[in-house]
């Protein structure tokens, strides 16, 4: 009777009771069930739990496996949540910096627009004053002409009119020069601002280019890590196959030695020649050397993969994470059969004093032990 442990349902809600079960809870449940079995043995004998014990142990082992998977998944979920929080914080900081920069640019543009509008208003006012002065001069000239025609003009009055005219011309020229200077200064500031904006745009393009190159390097590193992982898996598979062959060869050598000893004890007629035995031993030594070589390669690839992962994490710590889609892969039981060999679970320890376990994993009640020795750890 073999039980295949299935993984938890992926669509089960995170708040379901099965997500809250831990290995300690399973062990407590096993201890309480062990005590109940002790009472049943005391009252009805060991034959009463002969058929029930394997089913209970299998169910508890399945529950223990589910609890282990839940703990691993919860740890992974916590790590992923922390990573998501860090990425969201980085994204918010970048958005804040971008908004701040845009706000500063808008404020600078508005300030320059206001200054330009003020300068244009000053120019319009000066133009209006210039027109008024021209009108006054024309009226003054007309009045002067009429006054000259009607009455003679004094030299003092004429000189005063000329002086006023010269003063107005000088003031006009001075204001025009000041306005031209202000316009030139504002235009130079606008040019400087445009140059700074262009510089920021170039820097942004350069940063985008560097970001793209870093993402390419990250993809290359991820591809190299995947290649190294595949090599390590292939090496592990070869190592497992060579170990199996070595075990078969060792078993064959032991059988040959046993047969040789039997033949020596019996009729002393050898069934294998010495050359065949030497060939088998030589093949065994070659396989051992190959296994050692593959183990060294496996250690080397594991160290290289860990160093490449650390370098990749250091380089991509300030970059956005590249997310790839899900990839269908072979089940773990098929890729790593040596990792999924049947091992003794922690649940069986609670029933060790009540039952005995054979090589196939089944449980059978002990007939030679007394019920007083049954205990739960």
From TrEMBL:
Q: Name one GO cellular component term.
A: ciliary basal body
Q: Tell me which stretches of the chain form a coiled coil.
A: 116-143, 169-304
Molecular functions per Gene Ontology: dynein light intermediate chain binding; protein dimerization activity; small GTPase binding
Task: Report if keyword Transport is assigned.
Answer: yes
Q: What Gene3D superfamilies does UniProt report for this protein, alphabetically? A: 1.20.58.1770, 6.10.230.10
Query: What are the BP-aspect GO terms?
Result: cilium assembly; protein transport
Q: Which UniProt keywords apply?
A: Coiled coil, Protein transport, Transport
Say if the entry is tagged with keyword Transport.
yes
Where in the numbering of this chain does the RH1 domain appear? Answer: 9-97
* Matching InterPro entries: DZIP_RILPL, RH1, RH2, RILP_dimer
Top-level lineage group? Eukaryota
Q: Domain RH2 spans what residues?
A: 269-347
For this protein, the record's Pfam families field holds: RH1, RILP
Protein's name according to its UniProt entry = RILP-like protein
Taxonomic source organism: Acrobeloides nanus
């Amino acid at each position: 009777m073999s039980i295949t442990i299935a993984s938890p349902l992926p669509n089960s809600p995170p708040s379901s009771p099965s997500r809250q079960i831990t290995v300690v809870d399973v062990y407590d449940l096993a201890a309480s069930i062990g005590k109940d079995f002790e009472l049943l043995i005391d009252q009805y004998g060991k034959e009463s739990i002969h058929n029930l014990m394997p089913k209970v142990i299998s169910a508890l082992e399945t529950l223990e496996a589910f609890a282990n998977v839940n703990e691993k998944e919860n740890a992974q979920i916590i790590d992923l949540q922390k990573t998501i929080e860090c990425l969201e914080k980085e994204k918010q900081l970048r958005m804040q910096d971008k908004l701040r920069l845009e706000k500063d640019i808008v404020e600078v543009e508005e300030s320059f627009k206001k200054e330009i509008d003020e300068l244009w208003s000053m120019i319009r006012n000066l133009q209006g004053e210039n027109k008024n002065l021209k009108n006054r001069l024309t009226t003054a000239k007309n009045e002067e002409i009429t006054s000259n025609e009607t009455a003679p003009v004094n030299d003092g009055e004429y000189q005063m009119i000329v002086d006023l005219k010269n003063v107005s011309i000088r003031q006009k020229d001075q204001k025009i020069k000041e306005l031209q200077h202000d316009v030139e200064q504002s235009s130079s500031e606008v040019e400087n601002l445009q140059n700074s904006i262009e510089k920021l745009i170039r820097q942004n393009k350069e940063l985008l280019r560097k970001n793209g190159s870093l993402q390419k390097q990250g993809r290359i590193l991820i591809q190299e890590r995947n290649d190294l992982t595949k090599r390590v898996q292939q090496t592990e598979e070869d190592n497992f196959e060579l170990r199996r062959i070595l075990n078969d060869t060792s078993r064959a050598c032991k059988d040959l030695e046993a047969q040789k000893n039997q033949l020596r004890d019996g009729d002393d007629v050898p069934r294998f020649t010495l050359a065949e035995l030497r060939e088998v031993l030589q093949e065994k030594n070659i396989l051992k050397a190959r296994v050692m070589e593959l183990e060294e390669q496996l250690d080397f690839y594991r160290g290289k993969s860990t160093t490449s992962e650390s370098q990749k994490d250091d380089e991509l710590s300030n970059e956005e994470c590249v997310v790839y889609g899900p990839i269908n892969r072979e089940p773990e039981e098929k890729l790593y059969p040596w990792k999924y060999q049947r091992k003794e679970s922690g649940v069986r320890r609670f029933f060790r004093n009540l039952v005995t376990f054979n090589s196939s994993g089944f449980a059978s009640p002990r007939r030679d032990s007394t019920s007083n020795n049954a205990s739960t750890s």
